[in-house]
Amino acid sequence: PATEEQLVWYGYKDWHYAHAYEDRAAKQRIMRHRLCAEQNYRCAYCGKKVDTTVTCNTHNFASLDHVKPKIYGGEDIYDNIVVACSPCNTKKGCMDVQEFLDRFIHTTVL
Fold it and tell me: Do residues 57 and 85 make contact, with C-beta atoms less than 8 angstroms apart?
């Protein structure tokens, strides 16, 4: 579970709710909104606009993606998570970022 310090950093207003209930969905919402703001509400891979207010079945839903997939030892921590649109997140699956970019986006990681 997230520490009190991490939850405060995600957003004070929502911290009370997430801390009181240790609700994973609440923590994901907080993280999604924080990452979206940092990424200017754009997919980390293709750059298309993403939306936090739509349902997960839409193409511009802001989904959370592990940069280094958990299956390859990636951790469930803030520094390993980015916001991606649903199509990019689905296509990437458990691929390495560079492999995904080479196959679908045709660019390289700097």
Answer: no
